[in-house]
Amino acid sequence: MSNQESAAALMKGTGAIVLWVAALAAAGPAQAAPSVACRLASAQRQSFDMQVPFDVIDGRIYVQARVNGRGPLKFAVDTGASGLGRADSSLVASLGLQLEKPILNSDGVATAEADTTTLNSLELGGLAKHDVKVITRDYNSRMSPEAAFSGIIAREFFADGLLLIDYPRKVLSFSRSLSLSPEQPGALRYERPFRVPVSIGAVSTEGNLDTGANVAFILPQVLFDQVSGTAAEAAGNGQLPNVQVETKRSTVHGPFRIGDVSVSDVEVRVSERYPELLVGAHTLQGFTVLIDQRSKSVALCR
Fold first, then answer.
1. Domains (range + CATH), the chain
2. What pTM, to 2 d.p., does this model score?
């Protein structure tokens, strides 16, 4: 993975993370009607081209996919990963795939060469892509057996429609007919996937929404120094795809606000080398997440 997938391999076992979900003052009471953007989450089944169930393991999303007509195979869905997908080396071996020319790949801290291969087809719930060039690595050696996967479905797999990740119901949906607009109340616009405005108490910044990262938040040291948190303690090295980084842990009251949702008193990871605020799966799994890459819009909904 790149910067986008960096935290997916970073820092397993973040410990217990207690999330208190509170409404923003502007959002009104909990029983208030959902925003215009969040009403898309209640669209009729016929509005979607694909709907599949998913499992959640350590915050990450796992679905059943097919590769070259073979399957079902366990794949992670990672909005932090660029391109169409990734293949674990075990899948390359089992399907007899050929390794191709390596490419440079960044994990957000360091850049290194990564092998590639081509999948004739990658299919999820009837939604299929063909001649899919993917990075391949031995991802599973860094994971627990229950978290191991055959590959990753990355963000560009869903680039031509609306992706809806309903964590409470554990349903992944995709629609080309529905659309999310940055002008809709409740929606957030981004320029780089998927960096959106985030506030931590009185500090305003930008955060990268990454469903592949099994943490709540990663804060660069310079950002952590600006917010009120408990004293940071050593948490060992975190393994990125290309390099290890030293990390610390702390609890930050916040509240962390992203659009219409907020969380408080969250255990975070802190790194002097990590370049940006990362909003990981342990935060996102409390909400329904909508992403429309056509309009460069996202929404987080209760």
1. 6-39+179-301 (2.40.70.10), 53-160 (2.40.70.10)
2. 0.86
